[in-house]
Amino acid sequence: MDGPVTTEVDGIPTLLAPTSGGGPVVAGLFFRVGAADETLATAGLTHLVEHLALHRHGVSDLHYNGSTAATHTHFVVSGTAEEVVAYLNGVCASLRDLPVERLATEREILRTEQAGRSRGPNHQLPLWRYGARGYGLASYPEYGTLHLTADAVRAWAATWFTRDNAVLWIASGTVPEGLDLTLPAGRRQPLPEPTSALPVTPAYLTGGSGGVVLDGIVRRSTAAVLFAEVLSRALFTDLRQKGGYSYTADCGYQPRDRDHATLTAFADALPQKQDAVVGGFIDVLARLRAGTIDQAELDSARAKTLKQYEGPDTGAAALPSYALNLLTGHPNLTPDEHRAELDAVTVEDLREVAGELYDSALIQVPGRSVDWAGFTAAPQWSAPVTDPAGTVHRSRASDAVSLAVGPEAVTLVTPSGQITVRYDACAAMRVFPDGARHLIGFDAFVVEVEPTLYAKLTPARMAVIDAAVPAAAVVPMPERDPDEIPQPAARRGGLKGRALGALRSLRPGRG
């Protein structure tokens, strides 16, 4: 069995694979740009371009969609050949001349979409692993939708939505007539380089929804795909079927870049079952890492994966993954080559993947340490500064807390530790009309500079911050309701490092 046919449409690499029967034509246009290519201050820029590109299609019976992921944007359509041609031509026409008169409306739509979007159990892990940039931006709001201009949106589209940064796939034996996918020339954009906010792994953090969630970075491989299935089944068997501790216990495999993938495992828990779920979860991981894997577990995972080749249109079904691999530079396997790799995977290969997962793991557990399992606590505080430079402003809520505003950084000092955000390492500064400034560092630590909470924090001292933070990091925020402006609480003695909202008036942490 061969892979797809490769051709070209208007300079865009194109993959074709026929389908059996007379069903609809399905096609997709990928661009190598996503949320991880943005900055925290411009987050949502790619999503805005996607929405603007689709606006002219309006209300239609045609089945179409657009999506923005970490490293790619995808426009997909299903219909007759004529409808597919009209859709793809319309997308490219809009990308050449974005309807920026719709910008204000689309920004509101995106903010509404964001407010109603459910956040998965692993939504905090990216910022703890990567910080407030690159792949870590998946944890953050789309701040760019608050302030991005028409010029910024046009420039982004002209740089990233080009024919040299795209791949087209069509579930058909031929290219439909009438396609006009003319786009400006550009270049194939490299994938974002991973950053790190973790000094060591495996690491852990506490909190979350009460369940256990873990992710790790492994090499992309057929063995890793099978391992994800084995881990998923082992968690389900031990935590749900045998222990009755969890309802949902699962593991997924998601390519991150050309050479690496993210494995994410999750198990939910009721409050009274949390200790059992944490222990059982880590026991399963330890068993697989030790190589205690039955051949039957591997064989079952392999059999499930091979079922993808049982349908009549397996080549067409694989087109999106083929196209995405072509876009990101990952080698494509023919179906026969993939089957051969599946057959060659051994239990020892799975043990190696389990070791990679453990060595790179970040686990979030409900309110308890797991250092007994070899995990190190993720940093709760910045590296201490003996005598933070600048003026010192005492907290109105606690004599033990102060804020230093210096020429190079702001530092929050508490009895438990310090948080520092350097101006030259500021991913975004949220600027509020009432005078507050919230600085988010590349390492994802946050210092909230609230004039209501600190003594002598005058406009002149705030001007020091404004002058030092790069203009590209500034995010103008809407006016806050008076009830949202923090006021000093009853005076307190100390603070827990990862408050993350626990104290409204004094809130260090990441976020």
TrEMBL record:
Protein name: Peptidase M16
Highest taxon of source: Bacteria
Peptidase M16 C-terminal domain mapped to chain residues: 220-303
Positions with biased composition (Low complexity): 489-499
A GO molecular function held by the record: metal ion binding
InterPro entries reported in the protein's UniProt record: Metalloenz_LuxS/M16, Peptidase_M16_C
Pfam families per record: Peptidase_M16_C
Region described as Disordered: 479-499
